[in-house]
Amino acid sequence: MGVTAFTFDRAHAESFIQFGYEHYAGVPGWIPPIRAWMRAQMAPENQFYGRPGNHHRHFLCAAGARVVGRVSAFVNADLHDADGSPIGAVGFYEAIEDDGVSRELLDAAAGWLTSQHGIHRIWGPLNFDIWHGYRFMTRGFEHERFFGEPGNHRWYPEQFTRYGFTVRQSWATREVHGREAIAGMVRSGEETTRAFEGRGYRFRPIDVSRLSEGLATLHDLTTRSFAAFLGFTPIGREEFEGLFALTRHGIIPELIQFALDPEGHPVGFVAAFPDLTRAVRAMRGGHGPLARLRFQLAPRSPRRVILFFGGALPGASRERAGLGRAGVHVLARQATALGCDHFIEALVASGNPSAALLGEHRTAVTREYELYELKR
Question: Is-above-0.90 flag for pTM?
């Protein structure tokens, strides 16, 4: 076996991308990434590469003429420890079930970060930053995937831990099944919502006729709300809007709600989306007219609604108490009106108090995910 390193090389980039498609061919539930987007992530024009202080290196592992693994190493100038020490990242990891391949890839990526950039703390899997995909799924492979969920082969977490990575942070997904259970969420949140609104607060859905303006507000609230989150690094408004390239076509305005204070200023938000898994899978990794037509024609029933994220501005006073529970109540009420019978609270970090917002109606944890850390 041998490892090839590159930064910008069209032929190597195509091999890097193609391996992902071959590696998951025939895997049930796989959601093919959009090839055009993968190519854009490997191209010099990608915004990440142009930021001062950012660096990267891609690695391909081959056995003869056959690619058997890939990984990327990233230096994000904004990603650092509490004492200011830089944290490196390894992402876009894919490998066959062979520890020799895994070790060669991780040796190359971690070695480059340490020898070339003096980085001794490495997180992974992390593609650029937390905005663009990170974490391995560690439990829940038997469940139907949802669009936006980490997806990987079962053996990846063990490959990382055998190499020397340890768990840095865990996340979980919980679910509520059945219309009666969701209606119960609505009933249990009524008192909190009345008290919240009684103090002059209210919720306003995003205006899809002014979507760019709404996404700008969402960007501002997300940036300010998540600033203290693990691994948070800022991105610009244009890049943030680009993250919604597909989900914006499935936006149901009632499922993205801004919390407004008594003066009408946005102070928080909750954002859920109808499940687009089948529609995105129907694109088969394409992005041309035919793929977009398949996306439009594929079923995307709001019966399965996914709560992806919510937040409130820091320094929330007693007056804002109950914002999270009231927001989930509003979403559950809207989901009930839409005929939803499956509500997913996705990717909640361990220790996050929002894990309790679904109350007694939630199932036990059904899926788990982990981000890993290597110290050298």
Answer: yes
Q: Which of 104, 96, 192 is CA-nearest to residue 152?
A: 96
Encode burial over 5-22: b for 16+ CB neighbours within 10 A, e otherwise: ebeeeeebbebbbebbee
| Domains of the chain, each with CATH number or no CATH | 2-134 (3.40.630.30), 174-370 (3.40.630.30)
Residue 373 host element (H or E): strand 367-375
Write the pLDDT tens digit of every residue in 258-272: 999 999 999 999 999
**The total number of residues written for the chain in this structure:** 376
What string of DSSP letters covers 135-186?
-EEEE-TTSPP-TTS----TTHHHHHHHHT-EEEEEEEEEEEESHHHHHHHH
Q: List phi, psi (to 5°) of 19.
A: -60, -40
Q: Are 60 and 3 in contact, with CB atoms under 8 Å apart?
A: yes
What tokens does 10 get?
A: 């069209």
- Phi then psi for residue 127, to 5 deg, are -90, 100
Distances, alpha carbon 276 to alpha carbons 11, 95, 108, 214, 288, in Å: 32, 27, 36, 21, 18
First to last CA, the chain: 24
